Amino acid sequence: MSIITIVGAGMMGSAMSGPAADNGHEIRLVGTPLDREIIDSVRETGFHPTLHQQLPAAVAAFQAEELDKALEGAELVIGGVSSFGVDWFAEHVLPLLRPGVPVLSVTKGLQDGPDGTLTPFPHLLAERLPEEKRGMIPFNAIGGPCICFELLERRHTMVYFCGADLAVLEKIRALLSTDYYHIQLTTDVMGVEGCVALKNAYAMGVSLAVGIADREVGEFDAAAAEALCTPGAPDRNPVYNPQAALFAQSCLEMRRIVSLAGGDGALAGELPGAGDLYVTIFGGRTRRLGMLLGRGIPFTEAQEILKGVTLEAVVIITRVARALRARGENPDYYPLLFHMDAILNDGAEVDLPWSKFGR
Ligand SMILES: NC(=O)C1=CN([C@@H]2O[C@H](COP(=O)(O)OP(=O)(O)OC[C@H]3O[C@@H](n4cnc5c(N)ncnc54)[C@H](OP(=O)(O)O)[C@@H]3O)[C@@H](O)[C@H]2O)C=CC1
Ligand SMILES: O=C(CO)COP(=O)(O)O
Protein backbone atom coordinates (compact mmCIF):
# COMPACT_ATOMS: atom_id res chain seq x y z
CA MET A 1 0.00 0.00 0.00
CA SER A 2 1.28 3.47 -0.91
CA ILE A 3 0.02 7.00 -0.51
CA ILE A 4 -0.99 8.61 -3.81
CA THR A 5 -1.85 12.30 -3.80
CA ILE A 6 -3.93 13.65 -6.68
CA VAL A 7 -3.72 17.44 -7.06
CA GLY A 8 -6.62 18.93 -9.03
CA ALA A 9 -10.04 17.43 -8.38
CA GLY A 10 -11.42 17.80 -11.90
CA MET A 11 -12.97 14.87 -13.68
CA MET A 12 -9.87 13.09 -14.97
CA GLY A 13 -7.64 13.58 -11.93
CA SER A 14 -10.45 12.27 -9.71
CA ALA A 15 -11.12 9.29 -12.01
CA MET A 16 -7.52 8.14 -11.46
CA SER A 17 -8.70 7.16 -7.96
CA GLY A 18 -10.31 4.08 -9.60
CA PRO A 19 -7.12 2.18 -10.52
CA ALA A 20 -5.33 3.61 -7.46
CA ALA A 21 -8.04 2.26 -5.13
CA ASP A 22 -8.14 -1.11 -6.87
CA ASN A 23 -4.42 -1.44 -6.06
CA GLY A 24 -5.20 -0.88 -2.37
CA HIS A 25 -3.56 2.55 -2.02
CA GLU A 26 -4.42 5.41 0.31
CA ILE A 27 -5.65 8.20 -1.98
CA ARG A 28 -5.61 11.89 -1.12
CA LEU A 29 -7.56 14.10 -3.52
CA VAL A 30 -6.65 17.80 -3.27
CA GLY A 31 -8.75 20.48 -4.95
CA THR A 32 -7.48 23.62 -6.60
CA PRO A 33 -8.96 26.84 -5.17
CA LEU A 34 -11.62 26.46 -7.88
CA ASP A 35 -12.57 22.93 -6.79
CA ARG A 36 -14.00 23.90 -3.39
CA GLU A 37 -17.51 22.56 -4.02
CA ILE A 38 -16.19 19.32 -5.50
CA ILE A 39 -14.08 18.71 -2.39
CA ASP A 40 -16.97 19.57 -0.05
CA SER A 41 -19.16 17.06 -1.86
CA VAL A 42 -16.54 14.29 -1.90
CA ARG A 43 -15.92 14.86 1.81
CA GLU A 44 -19.58 14.70 2.71
CA THR A 45 -20.82 11.84 0.55
CA GLY A 46 -18.00 10.59 -1.71
CA PHE A 47 -20.00 11.84 -4.72
CA HIS A 48 -18.12 13.79 -7.43
CA PRO A 49 -20.53 16.42 -8.78
CA THR A 50 -19.02 16.95 -12.25
CA LEU A 51 -18.24 13.29 -12.90
CA HIS A 52 -21.68 12.39 -11.48
CA GLN A 53 -20.09 9.30 -9.99
CA GLN A 54 -19.24 7.97 -6.56
CA LEU A 55 -15.49 7.94 -5.84
CA PRO A 56 -13.90 4.90 -4.14
CA ALA A 57 -14.12 4.78 -0.33
CA ALA A 58 -10.30 4.96 -0.12
CA VAL A 59 -10.37 8.63 -1.25
CA ALA A 60 -9.79 11.31 1.40
CA ALA A 61 -10.51 14.85 0.17
CA PHE A 62 -8.42 17.94 0.98
CA GLN A 63 -8.97 21.63 0.23
CA ALA A 64 -6.19 23.60 -1.52
CA GLU A 65 -4.84 25.08 1.71
CA GLU A 66 -4.25 21.54 3.05
CA LEU A 67 -1.97 20.67 0.13
CA ASP A 68 1.22 20.37 2.18
CA LYS A 69 -0.44 17.96 4.60
CA ALA A 70 -1.85 15.91 1.70
CA LEU A 71 1.63 15.57 0.17
CA GLU A 72 3.20 14.15 3.38
CA GLY A 73 4.51 10.63 2.76
CA ALA A 74 3.16 10.48 -0.81
CA GLU A 75 5.02 8.09 -3.12
CA LEU A 76 3.34 9.43 -6.25
CA VAL A 77 1.78 12.79 -7.07
CA ILE A 78 -0.82 12.80 -9.85
CA GLY A 79 -1.29 16.21 -11.51
CA GLY A 80 -5.00 16.54 -12.33
CA VAL A 81 -5.26 20.12 -13.64
CA SER A 82 -6.20 21.05 -17.19
CA SER A 83 -3.86 23.13 -19.35
CA PHE A 84 -5.54 26.24 -17.87
CA GLY A 85 -4.32 25.21 -14.41
CA VAL A 86 -0.68 24.51 -15.27
CA ASP A 87 0.52 27.94 -14.07
CA TRP A 88 -1.28 27.43 -10.77
CA PHE A 89 0.33 23.98 -10.45
CA ALA A 90 3.79 25.40 -11.22
CA GLU A 91 3.41 28.24 -8.75
CA HIS A 92 1.71 26.47 -5.83
CA VAL A 93 2.52 22.77 -6.10
CA LEU A 94 6.08 22.57 -7.45
CA PRO A 95 7.67 24.32 -4.43
CA LEU A 96 6.06 21.74 -2.10
CA LEU A 97 7.16 18.60 -3.95
CA ARG A 98 9.59 16.24 -2.18
CA PRO A 99 12.78 15.30 -4.08
CA GLY A 100 12.58 11.83 -5.62
CA VAL A 101 8.77 11.63 -5.57
CA PRO A 102 7.57 11.32 -9.16
CA VAL A 103 4.76 13.35 -10.72
CA LEU A 104 2.35 11.84 -13.25
CA SER A 105 0.13 14.36 -15.09
CA VAL A 106 -3.15 13.81 -16.89
CA THR A 107 -2.92 17.28 -18.50
CA LYS A 108 -3.05 17.41 -22.30
CA GLY A 109 -1.47 20.43 -23.97
CA LEU A 110 1.64 22.07 -25.38
CA GLN A 111 3.26 25.45 -24.78
CA ASP A 112 4.63 27.35 -27.77
CA GLY A 113 7.70 29.57 -27.66
CA PRO A 114 8.51 32.70 -29.72
CA ASP A 115 10.85 30.64 -31.95
CA GLY A 116 8.09 28.13 -32.73
CA THR A 117 9.21 25.44 -30.28
CA LEU A 118 6.46 23.30 -28.79
CA THR A 119 7.10 22.14 -25.24
CA PRO A 120 5.20 19.29 -23.56
CA PHE A 121 4.06 19.94 -19.98
CA PRO A 122 6.42 17.44 -18.25
CA HIS A 123 9.37 19.39 -19.72
CA LEU A 124 7.77 22.74 -18.89
CA LEU A 125 7.20 21.74 -15.25
CA ALA A 126 10.79 20.48 -14.95
CA GLU A 127 11.99 23.89 -16.17
CA ARG A 128 9.77 25.70 -13.69
CA LEU A 129 10.97 23.80 -10.60
CA PRO A 130 12.57 26.03 -7.98
CA GLU A 131 16.37 26.17 -8.51
CA GLU A 132 17.24 24.00 -5.49
CA LYS A 133 15.03 21.13 -6.72
CA ARG A 134 16.03 21.10 -10.41
CA GLY A 135 16.58 17.58 -11.73
CA MET A 136 15.37 16.01 -8.48
CA ILE A 137 11.75 15.33 -9.46
CA PRO A 138 10.85 13.03 -12.34
CA PHE A 139 7.95 14.46 -14.38
CA ASN A 140 5.85 11.97 -16.32
CA ALA A 141 2.52 12.06 -18.11
CA ILE A 142 -0.39 9.88 -19.18
CA GLY A 143 -1.44 9.98 -22.82
CA GLY A 144 -3.99 8.04 -24.77
CA PRO A 145 -7.70 7.38 -25.15
CA CYS A 146 -9.26 7.53 -21.69
CA ILE A 147 -12.62 9.08 -21.02
CA CYS A 148 -12.79 9.65 -17.28
CA PHE A 149 -16.27 8.16 -16.68
CA GLU A 150 -15.33 4.91 -18.35
CA LEU A 151 -12.11 4.54 -16.38
CA LEU A 152 -14.09 4.88 -13.16
CA GLU A 153 -16.56 2.30 -14.51
CA ARG A 154 -13.54 -0.02 -14.89
CA ARG A 155 -13.87 -0.34 -18.68
CA HIS A 156 -10.79 -1.69 -20.48
CA THR A 157 -8.59 1.33 -21.12
CA MET A 158 -5.15 1.40 -22.74
CA VAL A 159 -2.78 4.34 -22.29
CA TYR A 160 0.88 5.31 -22.43
CA PHE A 161 2.85 6.55 -19.45
CA CYS A 162 5.75 8.66 -20.74
CA GLY A 163 8.77 10.14 -19.01
CA ALA A 164 12.55 10.35 -19.20
CA ASP A 165 13.35 7.31 -17.05
CA LEU A 166 11.95 3.84 -17.79
CA ALA A 167 12.75 2.57 -14.28
CA VAL A 168 10.60 5.34 -12.78
CA LEU A 169 7.82 4.60 -15.27
CA GLU A 170 7.93 0.90 -14.32
CA LYS A 171 7.46 1.83 -10.65
CA ILE A 172 4.49 4.06 -11.43
CA ARG A 173 2.94 1.38 -13.63
CA ALA A 174 3.25 -1.12 -10.76
CA LEU A 175 1.27 1.30 -8.56
CA LEU A 176 -1.61 1.79 -11.01
CA SER A 177 -1.87 -1.15 -13.39
CA THR A 178 -5.02 -3.31 -13.11
CA ASP A 179 -6.68 -5.99 -15.22
CA TYR A 180 -8.66 -3.22 -16.99
CA TYR A 181 -6.11 -0.34 -16.95
CA HIS A 182 -3.45 -1.35 -19.48
CA ILE A 183 -0.30 0.77 -19.45
CA GLN A 184 2.45 0.95 -22.06
CA LEU A 185 5.67 2.83 -21.37
CA THR A 186 7.81 5.11 -23.50
CA THR A 187 10.50 7.73 -23.09
CA ASP A 188 9.17 9.61 -26.15
CA VAL A 189 7.49 12.41 -24.20
CA MET A 190 7.18 14.70 -27.22
CA GLY A 191 5.68 11.90 -29.32
CA VAL A 192 2.96 10.98 -26.82
CA GLU A 193 2.26 14.44 -25.46
CA GLY A 194 2.31 16.04 -28.91
CA CYS A 195 -0.27 13.56 -30.22
CA VAL A 196 -2.63 13.74 -27.25
CA ALA A 197 -2.61 17.53 -27.24
CA LEU A 198 -3.14 17.74 -31.00
CA LYS A 199 -6.01 15.24 -31.01
CA ASN A 200 -8.09 17.83 -29.11
CA ALA A 201 -7.54 20.26 -31.97
CA TYR A 202 -8.40 17.70 -34.62
CA ALA A 203 -11.42 16.32 -32.74
CA MET A 204 -12.88 19.77 -33.30
CA GLY A 205 -11.95 19.53 -36.99
CA VAL A 206 -13.60 16.15 -37.56
CA SER A 207 -16.73 17.23 -35.69
CA LEU A 208 -17.19 20.17 -38.06
CA ALA A 209 -18.56 17.59 -40.54
CA VAL A 210 -21.31 16.59 -38.09
CA GLY A 211 -22.41 20.22 -37.71
CA ILE A 212 -22.28 20.82 -41.48
CA ALA A 213 -24.60 17.83 -42.06
CA ASP A 214 -26.92 19.07 -39.30
CA ARG A 215 -27.54 22.25 -41.35
CA GLU A 216 -29.62 20.09 -43.73
CA VAL A 217 -32.05 19.25 -40.93
CA GLY A 218 -33.35 22.81 -40.50
CA GLU A 219 -32.72 26.10 -38.72
CA PHE A 220 -30.60 26.36 -35.56
CA ASP A 221 -33.41 26.15 -33.00
CA ALA A 222 -33.84 24.63 -29.53
CA ALA A 223 -33.93 21.08 -30.94
CA ALA A 224 -30.73 21.66 -32.90
CA ALA A 225 -29.02 23.17 -29.86
CA GLU A 226 -30.03 20.20 -27.73
CA ALA A 227 -28.86 17.69 -30.35
CA LEU A 228 -25.52 19.42 -30.71
CA CYS A 229 -24.80 20.18 -27.06
CA THR A 230 -26.08 17.13 -25.18
CA PRO A 231 -23.28 14.64 -24.55
CA GLY A 232 -24.09 11.34 -26.23
CA ALA A 233 -27.09 12.66 -28.24
CA PRO A 234 -27.36 10.87 -31.62
CA ASP A 235 -26.45 12.83 -34.77
CA ARG A 236 -29.64 14.04 -36.47
CA ASN A 237 -28.17 13.57 -39.92
CA PRO A 238 -25.46 10.92 -39.58
CA VAL A 239 -22.84 11.11 -42.33
CA TYR A 240 -19.55 9.25 -42.16
CA ASN A 241 -17.56 9.80 -45.37
CA PRO A 242 -16.58 13.40 -44.54
CA GLN A 243 -15.73 12.48 -40.94
CA ALA A 244 -13.53 9.61 -42.11
CA ALA A 245 -11.69 11.85 -44.58
CA LEU A 246 -11.14 14.50 -41.89
CA PHE A 247 -9.99 11.80 -39.46
CA ALA A 248 -7.33 10.63 -41.93
CA GLN A 249 -6.27 14.22 -42.69
CA SER A 250 -5.97 14.81 -38.93
CA CYS A 251 -3.64 11.82 -38.53
CA LEU A 252 -1.51 13.04 -41.44
CA GLU A 253 -1.15 16.56 -40.00
CA MET A 254 -0.53 15.23 -36.47
CA ARG A 255 2.27 13.04 -37.86
CA ARG A 256 3.86 16.04 -39.60
CA ILE A 257 3.63 18.31 -36.56
CA VAL A 258 4.86 15.74 -34.03
CA SER A 259 7.83 14.83 -36.27
CA LEU A 260 8.66 18.52 -36.70
CA ALA A 261 8.58 19.01 -32.92
CA GLY A 262 11.00 16.11 -32.39
CA GLY A 263 8.68 13.22 -31.47
CA ASP A 264 7.98 9.93 -33.23
CA GLY A 265 5.38 10.91 -35.84
CA ALA A 266 4.33 7.26 -36.21
CA LEU A 267 2.51 7.60 -32.88
CA ALA A 268 -0.06 9.74 -34.73
CA GLY A 269 -1.41 6.52 -36.26
CA GLU A 270 -1.38 4.65 -32.94
CA LEU A 271 -2.87 4.91 -29.46
CA PRO A 272 -1.97 8.55 -28.61
CA GLY A 273 -2.99 9.92 -32.01
CA ALA A 274 -5.67 7.92 -33.84
CA GLY A 275 -6.79 6.14 -30.64
CA ASP A 276 -7.26 9.29 -28.60
CA LEU A 277 -8.80 11.13 -31.55
CA TYR A 278 -11.40 8.37 -31.92
CA VAL A 279 -12.47 8.46 -28.28
CA THR A 280 -12.61 12.26 -28.22
CA ILE A 281 -14.73 12.46 -31.38
CA PHE A 282 -17.26 10.05 -29.89
CA GLY A 283 -17.06 10.74 -26.19
CA GLY A 284 -15.29 14.06 -25.59
CA ARG A 285 -16.42 17.61 -24.90
CA THR A 286 -14.46 19.04 -27.85
CA ARG A 287 -16.93 17.39 -30.23
CA ARG A 288 -19.66 19.81 -29.12
CA LEU A 289 -17.59 22.84 -30.11
CA GLY A 290 -16.82 21.40 -33.57
CA MET A 291 -20.47 20.56 -34.17
CA LEU A 292 -21.66 24.06 -33.24
CA LEU A 293 -19.03 25.70 -35.47
CA GLY A 294 -19.88 23.34 -38.33
CA ARG A 295 -23.52 24.33 -37.89
CA GLY A 296 -22.42 27.90 -38.69
CA ILE A 297 -22.51 29.27 -35.13
CA PRO A 298 -19.75 31.89 -34.72
CA PHE A 299 -17.03 30.96 -32.23
CA THR A 300 -17.95 33.67 -29.69
CA GLU A 301 -21.56 32.43 -29.63
CA ALA A 302 -20.47 28.78 -29.41
CA GLN A 303 -18.23 29.70 -26.47
CA GLU A 304 -21.19 31.30 -24.72
CA ILE A 305 -23.37 28.22 -25.31
CA LEU A 306 -20.63 25.96 -23.91
CA LYS A 307 -19.71 28.23 -20.99
CA GLY A 308 -18.09 26.26 -18.16
CA VAL A 309 -17.11 23.32 -20.40
CA THR A 310 -13.36 22.62 -20.46
CA LEU A 311 -12.32 23.17 -24.11
CA GLU A 312 -8.60 22.80 -24.67
CA ALA A 313 -8.89 22.65 -28.48
CA VAL A 314 -9.01 26.43 -28.77
CA VAL A 315 -5.72 26.90 -26.95
CA ILE A 316 -3.90 24.11 -28.74
CA ILE A 317 -5.04 25.20 -32.22
CA THR A 318 -3.97 28.78 -31.52
CA ARG A 319 -0.59 27.81 -30.05
CA VAL A 320 0.33 25.27 -32.72
CA ALA A 321 -0.70 27.51 -35.64
CA ARG A 322 1.37 30.32 -34.07
CA ALA A 323 4.35 27.99 -33.66
CA LEU A 324 4.15 26.79 -37.27
CA ARG A 325 3.99 30.40 -38.49
CA ALA A 326 6.99 31.31 -36.33
CA ARG A 327 8.92 28.45 -37.94
CA GLY A 328 7.97 29.66 -41.43
CA GLU A 329 6.16 26.40 -42.22
CA ASN A 330 4.04 26.18 -45.39
CA PRO A 331 0.37 26.41 -44.26
CA ASP A 332 -0.68 24.16 -47.17
CA TYR A 333 1.10 21.33 -45.37
CA TYR A 334 -1.38 21.69 -42.47
CA PRO A 335 -4.55 22.95 -44.20
CA LEU A 336 -7.04 21.64 -41.61
CA LEU A 337 -5.14 23.15 -38.69
CA PHE A 338 -4.84 26.57 -40.35
CA HIS A 339 -8.51 26.53 -41.34
CA MET A 340 -9.48 25.80 -37.73
CA ASP A 341 -7.21 28.63 -36.56
CA ALA A 342 -8.90 31.02 -39.03
CA ILE A 343 -12.38 29.98 -37.78
CA LEU A 344 -11.43 30.57 -34.14
CA ASN A 345 -9.13 33.55 -34.38
CA ASP A 346 -10.11 35.43 -37.57
CA GLY A 347 -13.86 34.82 -37.63
CA ALA A 348 -13.59 32.83 -40.90
CA GLU A 349 -16.63 30.87 -42.05
CA VAL A 350 -16.40 27.09 -42.09
CA ASP A 351 -15.36 26.15 -45.64
CA LEU A 352 -13.21 23.03 -45.52
CA PRO A 353 -10.22 23.27 -47.92
CA TRP A 354 -10.83 19.85 -49.52
CA SER A 355 -8.53 20.45 -52.50
CA LYS A 356 -5.56 20.93 -50.16
CA PHE A 357 -6.13 17.69 -48.23
CA GLY A 358 -4.07 14.54 -48.75
CA ARG A 359 -0.36 14.08 -49.36
N1 LIG B 1 -12.05 14.30 -19.09
C1 LIG B 1 -11.39 13.28 -19.64
O1 LIG B 1 -11.97 12.23 -19.93
C2 LIG B 1 -9.93 13.37 -19.86
C3 LIG B 1 -9.20 14.51 -19.61
N2 LIG B 1 -7.84 14.52 -19.80
C4 LIG B 1 -7.07 15.71 -19.56
O2 LIG B 1 -7.04 15.94 -18.18
C5 LIG B 1 -6.96 17.35 -17.91
C6 LIG B 1 -8.07 17.71 -16.95
O3 LIG B 1 -9.31 17.47 -17.62
P1 LIG B 1 -10.66 17.28 -16.83
O4 LIG B 1 -10.40 16.68 -15.50
O5 LIG B 1 -11.60 16.62 -17.71
O6 LIG B 1 -11.10 18.81 -16.67
P2 LIG B 1 -11.88 19.51 -15.49
O7 LIG B 1 -12.33 20.81 -16.04
O8 LIG B 1 -12.88 18.58 -14.87
O9 LIG B 1 -10.74 19.73 -14.39
C7 LIG B 1 -9.67 20.60 -14.61
C8 LIG B 1 -8.86 20.81 -13.33
O10 LIG B 1 -7.95 21.90 -13.55
C9 LIG B 1 -8.29 22.96 -12.64
N3 LIG B 1 -8.13 24.28 -13.23
C10 LIG B 1 -8.66 24.75 -14.38
N4 LIG B 1 -8.30 26.06 -14.57
C11 LIG B 1 -7.54 26.38 -13.50
C12 LIG B 1 -6.86 27.58 -13.11
N5 LIG B 1 -6.89 28.67 -13.86
N6 LIG B 1 -6.17 27.55 -11.94
C13 LIG B 1 -6.13 26.44 -11.18
N7 LIG B 1 -6.75 25.29 -11.50
C14 LIG B 1 -7.44 25.25 -12.63
C15 LIG B 1 -9.75 22.70 -12.35
O11 LIG B 1 -10.31 23.43 -11.35
P3 LIG B 1 -11.93 23.70 -11.58
O12 LIG B 1 -12.59 22.38 -11.83
O13 LIG B 1 -12.46 24.31 -10.39
O14 LIG B 1 -12.01 24.61 -12.82
C16 LIG B 1 -9.71 21.20 -12.15
O15 LIG B 1 -9.09 20.81 -10.95
C17 LIG B 1 -7.09 18.04 -19.26
O16 LIG B 1 -5.82 18.47 -19.69
C18 LIG B 1 -7.66 16.97 -20.18
O17 LIG B 1 -7.26 17.12 -21.51
C19 LIG B 1 -7.18 13.41 -20.16
C20 LIG B 1 -7.85 12.25 -20.44
C21 LIG B 1 -9.27 12.19 -20.37
O1 LIG C 1 -8.87 13.65 -23.59
C1 LIG C 1 -9.95 13.15 -23.58
C2 LIG C 1 -10.10 11.71 -23.82
O2 LIG C 1 -8.87 11.01 -23.92
C3 LIG C 1 -11.18 13.98 -23.31
O3 LIG C 1 -11.42 14.89 -24.35
P1 LIG C 1 -12.35 16.20 -24.15
O4 LIG C 1 -11.50 17.25 -23.53
O5 LIG C 1 -12.84 16.55 -25.52
O6 LIG C 1 -13.49 15.79 -23.24
TrEMBL record:
Residues forming the catalytic site: K199 (proton acceptor)
Catalytic activity line of the entry: sn-glycerol 3-phosphate + NADP(+) = dihydroxyacetone phosphate + NADPH + H(+)
EC assignment: 1.1.1.94
GO cellular component: cytosol
Record-annotated Glycerol-3-phosphate dehydrogenase NAD-dependent C-terminal domain positions: 188-350
UniProt-listed InterPro entries: 6-PGluconate_DH-like_C_sf, 6PGD_dom2, G3P_DH_NAD-dep, G3P_DH_NAD-dep_C, G3P_DH_NAD-dep_N, NAD(P)-bd_dom_sf
GO biological process terms, semicolon-separated: carbohydrate metabolic process; glycerol-3-phosphate catabolic process; phospholipid biosynthetic process
Superkingdom of source: Bacteria
Coiled coil feature spans: none
Positions of the Glycerol-3-phosphate dehydrogenase NAD-dependent N-terminal domain: 4-160
Any Pfam family the entry gives: NAD_Gly3P_dh_N
UniProt GO molecular function: glycerol-3-phosphate dehydrogenase [NAD(P)+] activity; NAD binding
Keywords: Lipid biosynthesis, Lipid metabolism, NAD, Oxidoreductase, Phospholipid biosynthesis, Phospholipid metabolism
Family: Belongs to the NAD-dependent glycerol-3-phosphate dehydrogenase family.
Name of this protein: Glycerol-3-phosphate dehydrogenase
Species assigned in the record: Victivallis lenta
Organismal lineage: Bacteria, Pseudomonadati, Lentisphaerota, Lentisphaeria, Victivallales
